[in-house]
Design goal:
Shape: globular
Radius of gyration: 24 Å
Order of helices and strands: EEHEHHHEHEHEHEHEHHEHEEEHEEEEE
Structural class: alpha/beta
Strand order of the largest sheet: 15-14-17-12-11-10-1-13-16
Distance between the termini: 41 Å
Number of domains: 2
Oligomer: single chain
CATH topology of the largest domain: TIM Barrel
Largest sheet: 9 strands, mixed
């Protein structure tokens, strides 16, 4: 929806005690915040896929941008060679051709990817430092460290790598162990990066990353987790990163049952979701409850639940880029991240943040709209004492409030998302050569999250916000409003001042839109 001039005006009336809009707005939502009552701590969901280091020639280094967005953990999946334990790429691989249609760019990727795998020769001795090719991965890992983020190391292969069987599971586990030694214990002229998270594999339940039997995957996990824990028992090791998180089967229940029966450590269970079928920002929270229920029922009550890939859509092709880079996704992301606050999901890593495919940035490092959402959610971490907000819903109008530990700042983030009128489930059209492989999966038997049928949008053209019990009492304060819309890039929309321990404010904020309000004591 385009904003009319009326909707771009801030309706503020200043008094000694409050800001108030004259009259009422029937289509505005009433939101209330009690700044005197802390209900918990604002949790960070600033995790992403995609390192700030450019994975292909000509792409930008984004270390500074990651700092600006307060990205605090980076999953190394799909680095296209670097961080892959064992991966080989071929120019005619149909997955890679689909991902990188341009033959010249794909040829460069194949050459670079094949030169970057950590253990390139499976005839080599994993005990010897000279058997490893750490340099390309070193650059990726150290760029993540330079951005201030934690490394979440994905053990496996990137999208588009050839599905050649691993020749030796014991050797693979040994290579993973020595990789951890390199980055955590300085082995082979390495580092002391304190990488905690080691995630095993990626989406074995689809044809893209794993073509062996489920039992083989269990065995490979067993050997890998034992190898890592023998090197450092404090490492957090988990998996197995299912694509269909709601689907019962060998890579969900079967994997958990094997870990339980063999008393294998499972520090976290990771899973993915994209909202192609629903465009519903509440999906991740709903699936998170199902995953938590499953883990508890299987006896894994201390196992963390990690959403290691999520986005509005999984479609990486060019026609979908305007949606993924635009305001619709920015508002979707804002609502979804706020809803995760009250979910049993422990961590989340958005796919993806760099300048590749579905990323947050352009080729010159410029922000796309969703990047501004991450900047706003990151800003909320400066006021970690979470305050109760009433008046929101789970359909798209979401709000988060917090105050600083010193009581000098209060912030409110409002994200207003609405599913597009006439929405229909979105499915990527597979190239003909891939449809045969995809046909191995009987999608009629794959259990998906049932889309909600009760979504109704009401009073979501703006907000009437009341904040009471401001922590500085009757002292003077100032208010700054930053707005993200089709025309505004988290720009300062208004600034004013007041006193009296209370704020009343009403403003139009039609979907898709996002607003960050910052209240600070002036004395």
């Amino acid at each position: 929806m385009k904003n009319s001039p009326l909707f771009l005006l801030a309706a503020l009336v200043v008094s000694t005690a409050s800001f108030a809009q004259t009259g009422t707005q029937a289509d505005f939502r009433a939101l209330h915040v009690d700044a005197g009552k802390v209900i918990g701590t604002i949790r960070s969901f600033q995790g992403v896929n995609g390192a700030p280091y450019p994975i292909m020639k000509g792409f930008p280094n984004l270390v500074q941008q990651y700092k600006e967005l307060h990205i605090d953990i980076v999953r190394t999946h799909d680095s296209m060679g670097p961080t892959d334990i064992a991966a080989q790429y071929s120019l005619q691989n149909p997955l890679l051709t689909w991902l990188v249609p341009d033959s010249e760019q794909r040829s460069a990727l194949v050459q670079a990817g094949n030169a970057a795998a950590i253990f390139p020769n499976w005839e080599a001795d994993p005990e010897k430092p000279e058997s490893y090719n750490f340099a390309p991965t070193d650059e990726v890992i150290q760029a993540i460290m330079a951005s201030g983020a934690e490394v979440y190391f994905r053990i496996g292969r990137s999208f588009g790598a050839d599905l050649t069987p691993l020749p030796d599971f014991d050797k693979f586990a040994s290579v993973v162990r020595h990789t951890a030694m390199h980055y955590n214990q300085g082995w082979a002229k390495g580092f002391h990066d304190h990488i905690r998270y080691w995630e095993f594999w990626n989406e074995p339940d689809i044809f893209v990353f794993w073509n062996g039997a489920a039992q083989q995957l269990y065995t490979l996990y067993e050997k890998t987790v034992q190898a890592l824990k023998s090197m450092d028992p404090s490492l957090l090791v988990g998996g197995d990163t299912v694509a269909f998180a709601m689907n019962e089967g060998p890579y969900r229940e079967g994997f958990l049952d094997y870990c339980a029966a063999h008393q294998l450590s499972l520090d976290f269970f990771s899973w993915h979701t994209y909202a192609d079928a629903s465009a519903d920002p509440y999906d991740a929270a709903r699936i998170g409850r199902e995953i938590r229920r499953l883990l508890d029922a299987k006896g894994f009550k201390k196992t963390r639940s990690i959403l290691s890939e999520w986005n509005l859509s999984a479609d990486f092709t060019d026609p979908e880029k305007p949606v993924l880079q635009g305001m619709q996704n920015a508002a979707f992301i804002g609502a979804a991240m706020i809803y995760l606050q009250d979910s049993p999901v422990d961590r989340a890593e958005f796919y993806r943040a760099d300048a590749v495919w579905m990323g947050l940035f352009g080729m010159q490092g410029e922000y796309f709209k969703p990047a501004y959402t991450f900047r706003a959610t990151g800003a909320m971490l400066a006021t970690p004492e979470r305050l109760r907000v009433t008046g929101t819903d789970t359909f798209g109008l979401a709000a988060l409030a917090g105050r600083s530990r010193d009581g000098k700042t209060v912030q409110v983030l409002i994200s207003n998302y609405e599913r597009p009128a006439g929405f229909k489930p979105h499915m990527m059209d597979l190239p003909p050569e891939l449809k045969k492989a995809a046909g191995q999966i009987d999608f009629s038997k794959v259990k998906m999250l049932t889309p909600r049928t009760d979504i109704a949008y009401r009073q979501n053209r703006g907000y009437e916000l009341t904040i009471r019990n401001l922590p500085w009492g009757s002292d003077a304060f100032k208010v700054k409003r930053y707005r993200l819309t089709e025309k505004q890039d988290l720009a300062l929309e208004g600034e004013t001042s007041g006193s009296g321990g209370r704020l009343e404010m009403a403003n139009p904020l039609p979907p898709p839109g996002l607003e960050l309000l910052v209240l600070s004591r002036t004395k």
